[in-house]
Amino acid sequence: MAVALLLAGPAPQAAEPERLKGGARQADSPAEQDSPFFRLRRAVVEAAQGKRWDDAVAQARKLLDMTLPRGNPYEQLDASGLLYALLYQQGQYAQAVLQTDQMMALASADGYDPVSGQMQALIQRGLTAAMMAGDQGALTRYLQALKQESKAFEPLWQWNTADQQLHYQAAQLSVPLVQGRWVLVQMEPARDRKEVANLEYVYLKSDGRRLRVRMRLGYDDGLKDMDTAARQKSLQQEHGIFAGEQTPEPGLRLPALPFADALQSQQASREKREEGRPDVLHLDWGLVRGNWRLSLHAEQMDSERDSALQQLPLLWQAMQWPQAPELPPELPRQEREVSHAWRGDDDWPRAGQLARAALADAQFPAELARLNTVAGISAFKAGQQAEASRYLDQALQAWPYVSLFRLESELVDQAQQYGAELAAQQGRDADAARLMRQYLRNAGGLQNIWVQAQDPQVADLENRRTGMVLPMRAAGFHLQEPEDSQRMMYRDLMTGQQLGLTTGLKIPESDEAQEKLLRTALEKQFRLKAGSLKKRSFTAQTRSRDRRPEGREWTFEVSPQESRPGSDPVKRVVFWIVDQGASRTILRASVASPREQNRAEQLAQALSW
User: How far, rounded to the nearest angstrom, does the alpha carbon of residue 411 sit from its chain's CA centroid?
Assistant: First the structure.
């Protein structure tokens, strides 16, 4: 059997022969092609093609050593995959397990940042080699690694290692982790009701060749209103999507899936390959049961069709699906109403009421994260701190399992900020710092100017150029994700009041020039009519012993250029202006009431300039 250069885990048998020719990672330039790594890599491939296996393995070990311990991660993954493939091809499965163990230990070490797909590739290698070696200890370890890497939400996905079963609670479906020579090698759980769960199995023949099967299961609300004919048509259309460039094989009859009450379809098709390369058979099953869609797809060499048709039923006969439950039909509508209440109407009391009612039917992590976040923020704004903590704790436990789209990204940011505020109020400073740092996780990318404090328990941003330190929380205000390297915003989570902070400004030639700039900004940017101006000194706090910032407070009386219904008009805008050397920092507060003015002054006094 030809060597497979496995970079994304064991490849389907049908894809192996051609993978020896080029390699999974190509050099990007002539200089890279002539690099020591690629020269030695070519020597490994040439030895393998010449069937000089001992030489190929020895050279592959040298190739891998070139990348250890902290070399180019892509070359490291490439080299380890090449060595694994050689060991696997030679039947040295125990050695393949050992080599994968070493790479897993390296990838899991502190300070090591695996490249995309690296952990999944190593897990697939480990599972395959452990099965071939009959190493139950390694098999258990790598199944546990698969569980961790897939981030399966435990209330929804229950792993039973004693019985080698995986149970999907929402669908009431149990599938095997291991069944005979079948093993689960990849899992992408559904994180939301509208998402599809993906499972991938590999069947390992005694000579190491493989059959790979991909399984998809998802809930389709659109099936509720379909009759049998419409459901059958939708199954056929689904087959057509995946078989557009393949020739149907009507003479090849595929066995039915073992669910007699389901609507099913089967289809075999042939993929013609280039001259000299064998055809590939694509075997597809589609099923509709209740409002659930299940599909299976297998690829196999034409010469292996009998083996595939014999082994596939052994896999799905181990599946248990006593019923296909209907998910709560009103939950999507309830979630839309919740979203409209807080995003459209800014009506947090109503949003919280709707979210609490909908939580009874939520089970996917995205549902639980969204609804608990809204319920928690609503309780916080109502002064119900204990309730807010309970809901936000549950939300923060669910968010790591959620795919972040626009709405989710907005809500997870809020969950982290409100969770941090509650933790700070309760004296849980370490938790508060952790959550605030998570929220501002992208702040270090601002030209590497603002960076988080090295101490993980300190919630500060520091300017590497000027040494200025900004607290992530001060006087109950939370630093928002910076707009750029100069413009920041602080927000009071209870009231929504926001203060703008601009750093690194050039100092105008005179106060008159500065006043002109501020009046122009008020009129053009903030649509305010600027009236009289009052000036007074301001004592700016600083952490520096050798710097004495000069502070002033300027207050403009203002009126809106146009009225805005539903909001109190801004009466004045206060600027705290602080100079340090040739650099100026300005804090801006638009205030409509004495309380807002007082809160803004508290932040100005709390900052270190």
Answer: 14
pLDDT tens digits, 318-337:
999 999 999 999 999 999 99
Among the listed residues 335, 425, 337, the one whose alpha carbon sits nearest the alpha carbon of residue 380: 425
Rounded CA gap, 549 and 579, in Å?
Answer: 6
Q: What gap in Å lies between CA 34 and CA 366, rounded to an integer?
A: 49
Mapping DSSP onto H, E and C, the string for 281-308 reads EEEEEEEEECCEEEEEEEEEEHHHHHHH
Type of residue numbered 72:
N
- Tell me the two tokens of residue 607: 């900052």
4 pLDDT above the threshold of 80? no
Strands 182-188 and 196-204: antiparallel
pLDDT at 324: 96
- Residue 280's SS3 state is strand
Name, in order, each residue with C-beta under 8 angstroms of 605's C-beta and a sequence gap of 6 or more. 475, 541
Look up residue 20 and give its two tokens: 């020896």
CA atoms within 13 A on the CB side of 88: 34
Sheet containing 173-176: order of strands? 157-160, 165-168, 173-176
| Euclidean distance between CA atoms 310 and 308, whole angstroms | 5
Quick check: helix, strand or coil at residue 153?
Answer: coil
First-to-final CA distance of the chain: 69
Determine contact, residues 57/89, Cβ cutoff 8 Å: no
3-class DSSP assignment, residue 477: strand
Mean pLDDT of the 122-131 span: 98
Angstrom CA distances, 160 to 174, 176, 351, stand at 10, 9, 38
Picking from 481, 522, 488, 526, the residue whose alpha carbon sits closest to that of residue 505 is 488
Taking the C-alpha atoms of residue 259 and residue 305, their distance in angstroms, rounded to an integer, is 23
Mean of pLDDT values over 199-226: 94
159 pLDDT higher than 80:
yes
Question: Does 519 have pLDDT greater than 90?
Answer: yes
User: In 11-44, which positions are buried (b, 16+ CB within 10 angstroms) versus exposed (e)?
Assistant: bbbbebbebeeebbbeeeeeeeeeeebbeebebb
Structure tokens at 443: 């702040």
Q: How far apart, in whole angstroms, are the C-alpha atoms of residue 210 and residue 10?
A: 8
Domains within the chain, CATH numbers bracketed: 13-150 (1.25.40.10), 173-316 (3.40.1000), 331-435 (1.25.40), 477-606 (3.40.1000)
Distance CA 201, CA 131 (A): 12
Phi, psi for 46 (deg, rounded to 5): -65, -40
Provide the token pair at 480. 């928002």
User: What contacts 167, CB < 8 A, 6 or more positions away?
Assistant: 157, 158, 160, 173, 174
> What SS3 state is found at 179?
strand
Torsion of CA 514, 515, 516, 521, to 10 degrees: 90
Query: Rounded CA gap, 369 and 396, in Å?
Result: 7
Q: Give the Cα separation of 572 and 556 in Å (integer).
A: 5
Assessment of whether the complete model's pTM goes beyond 0.85: yes
Largest separation between any pair of C-alpha atoms in the chain: 91
Encode 108-138 in three state secondary structure: CCCCCCCCCCHHHHHHHHHHHHHHHHCCHHH
DSSP 255: P
| Parallel, antiparallel or unpaired: strands 196-204 and 157-160 | unpaired
- DSSP reduced 3-state for 578: strand
